[in-house]
Amino acid sequence: MRAGTDEQRIMIDGAEVLVIRSARRTRTVTAEQVAGKLRLRVPMRLSQREVEKHARAFQKRLAARASSSGRSDEALEQRAAELSVRYLEGAPKPASVTWSARQQRRWGSTTSTTGEIRLSARLRHMPGWVVDAVLVHELAHLIEPSHNARFKNLVARYPRTQEADAFLAGVSWADGQAQS
């Protein structure tokens, strides 16, 4: 570690963040992802609250970039693995995660006996955080097949679940209006 720097590991929304405080850094905050973990470089004087605020903002930005850039089955499978570790302690390990052009009424489906997850191809053009919410929902089905209280607690670990549910309800409503 360099002189005039201080390293600290903190947990933000279930993810470890390495915070590097520097006496030489006066105003800027930068972030990078190294081996799947966020590394935040901040001025020494920045309060813990401000550090956490910046960490959340960068996590959100990196998650959105990762979700929106990868629209292949392979990228979807990798994203599911990341979400499994981050929100479900890595317990669900799907056999496959694929886009499905055949799913028109459901956003996602899981065959818990085979470990297969399918997401509606309609989600490809939606925000990454919405896709992530559907993935977490389907991953939770690999732990708990029914929609009971345990399942709902697992799904609620993803912080934007309610927001994504509302977004998808709006899309479904608009689709229904277009068909009438």
Write the layout of secondary structure elements.
Layout: E1 5-12, E2 15-22, E3 30-34, E4 37-43, H1 48-69, H2 73-88, E5 96-100, E6 108-111, E7 116-120, H3 128-143, H4 149-155, H5 161-179
Parallel strand pairs: 2-4, 5-7
Antiparallel strand pairs: 1-2, 3-4, 6-7
Helix pairs in contact: 1-3, 2-3, 3-5
Please describe what this structure looks like.
- InterPro entries: UTP_pyrophosphatase-like, YgjP-like_metallopeptidase.
- The protein has 180 residues and is α/β, with parallel strands linked by helices.
- It has two domains: 63 residues, no CATH class; 109 residues, Metalloproteases ("zincins"), catalytic domain (Zincin-like), CATH 3.30.2010.10.
- It is built from five helices and seven strands.
- It has a four-stranded mixed β-sheet with strand order 1-2-4-3, with helices on one face.
- Strand 3 and strand 4 form a beta hairpin.
- Helix 1 packs across helix 3 and helix 2 crosses helix 3.
- The N and C termini lie far apart (65 Å).
- The mean pLDDT is 88.
What is the gist of this entry?
By secondary structure, the protein is an alpha/beta fold. It has 5 helices and 7 strands.
Any key phrases for this structure?
180 residues; alpha/beta; Zincin-like; 2 domains; 4-stranded mixed β-sheet; 5 helices; 7 strands
